[in-house]
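Morning!

This is the sequence you dropped in the shared folder:
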Amino acid sequence: MLKRNHQDFDCWMEMNNSLFNFPQTIWLSSEINMEWMGRTPDSLSAQTLSINILSLVLTGTSIQLYKGSCSHLALELYEAFTEEVVNTMPYEGGSIPFEVVAEWVMRNIAPSLLLQAG
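The structure's back. Tokens below.
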């Protein structure tokens, strides 16, 4: 269910561009790039960032999205993760440690979903 030993998730600004230490591999909608709410009022951009982070943390059966795929668990959790974690990042960006993501997932996952993830 949880991947091990992943790097932290860093988001920062450089010359007014948002940069990340991991690639965007999932798009929830056409041409919507990942971003954090401190940078844009577009919640779909922040949700795209969330699903990309969760897809690097969670394993399991994949579901195809607009572009790319993620586990069913990532799809179940990305909206709440956006509200509780990603939307708290400041305009300048920041780092979300892997351990913080893993702990958040374990606190927020329903026991029945854990069984399905296998």
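Headline: The chain has one domain: 9-117.

More detail when I'm at my desk.
O.
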